[in-house]
Design a protein that fits this description.
Bound molecules: flavin-adenine dinucleotide
CATH superfamily of the largest domain: Nucleotide-binding domain of ferredoxin-NADP reductase (FNR) module
CATH class of the largest domain: Alpha Beta
Strand order of the largest sheet: 4-3-6-1-2-5
Structural class: alpha/beta
Order of helices and strands: EEEEEHEEHEHEEHEHE
Number of domains: 2
CATH topology of the largest domain: Rossmann fold
CATH architecture of the largest domain: 3-Layer(aba) Sandwich
Distance between the termini: 37 Å
Length: 246
């Protein structure tokens, strides 16, 4: 039988504005459990009348960041929990959390297969933990990130991804924007297409371990593209954040 994970309290130590719609919450625990990149926490909010709402949020930070975890939460305008984080939660608040949770959708730098990371929107969050873990441990595994966002303003962790890309010849990254109207954007445009996956596979040289994360529709599409490009089914792991969308 699986061990029951109990609820713990963590203190909001820092809030970082990532994009107009995404904020990172650094949470400090008295005794932070070990975790693997790709895992998530459940967060539980309790209203004064006892009503509770619970949602899952992936860990954005690397396991190497001591004593804390970071969650990056995108604002869903008509949502229950994400607006609470964006509009109400402040530094010093106590949050009820349960985790870390998740088994197959995890990566440890002790692995020696290349990594293909496919992110749609806030699906970048657990994949960023993997990239940070890879960097913190000095892993020499080849990695490729394909990240689809709506507009330039929606690209979370853009500076850090660019820095990783520039500093690490074993990392390839491509950001593709589905709704950007600015003609100055010189990166990729449109939804993830087979050419982007094929370019990434050519860079990785060997069959990678694939992690795909985002909306249901995004994950379906990119997993199918990876299969069509010859990646075996067993090598593809997926995490779905919610309803269809880009
Ligand atoms: C394992 C796991 C990890 C997750 N990690 C993250 C994370 O790192 N960052 C993050 O921002 N979210 C993450 N999510 C999504 C998160 O759990 C919530 O679903 C999301 O924050 C919406 O919750 P809400 O209470 O604000 O909206 P809700 O009250 O649940 O929903 C309000 C409306 O928005 C729609 N909706 C719900 N979720 C989404 C969505 N993701 N995109 C578009 N529309 C939506 C609903 O269908 C509904 O119509 C994760 C989900 C899972 C299952």
């Amino acid at each position: 039988m699986q061990k029951r994970i109990s609820w713990q309290k963590a203190i909001v130590e820092k809030i970082i504005d990532e994009t107009p719609r995404a904020k990172t919450y650094r949470l400090r625990f008295d005794d932070r459990p070990a975790f693997r990149s790709g895992q998530h926490y459940d967060v539980r909010l309790t209203a004064p009348d006892g009503y509770q709402a619970q949602r899952s949020y992936s860990i954005a930070s690397a396991p190497e960041l001591e004593g804390v975890i970071e969650l990056t939460i995108e604002m869903i305008e008509n949502g229950e929990v994400s607006p609470f984080f964006h509009e109400v939660v402040q530094v010093g608040d106590e949050i009820e959390m349960r985790g870390p949770i998740g088994g197959p959708f995890t990566w440890a730098s002790s692995g020696n297969r290349p990594l293909l990371l496919l992110a749609g929107g806030s699906g970048i969050v657990p994949l960023m933990s993997m990239l940070r873990h890879r960097s913190a441990t000095g892993s020499s595994v080849r990695a490729a990130l394909i990240y689809s966002a709506r507009t330039e303003n929606d690209v979370i962790f853009r500076d850090e991804i660019t820095t990783f890309h520039k500093q690490d010849p074993k990392l390839h990254s491509a950001i593709t924007l589905t709704r950007e109207t600015n003609p100055d954007w010189t990166g990729e445009r449109g939804r993830v297409r087979s050419q982007l996956i094929e370019d990434a596979l050519a860079f990785l040289k060997e069959t990678p371990q694939v992690f795909a994360c985002g909306s249901d529709g995004f994950v379906e599409t990119v997993a199918s593209l990876a299969l069509a490009a010859g990646v075996p089914f067993q090598s593809i792991r997926t995490e779905r954040f919610g309803p269809p969308g880009s």
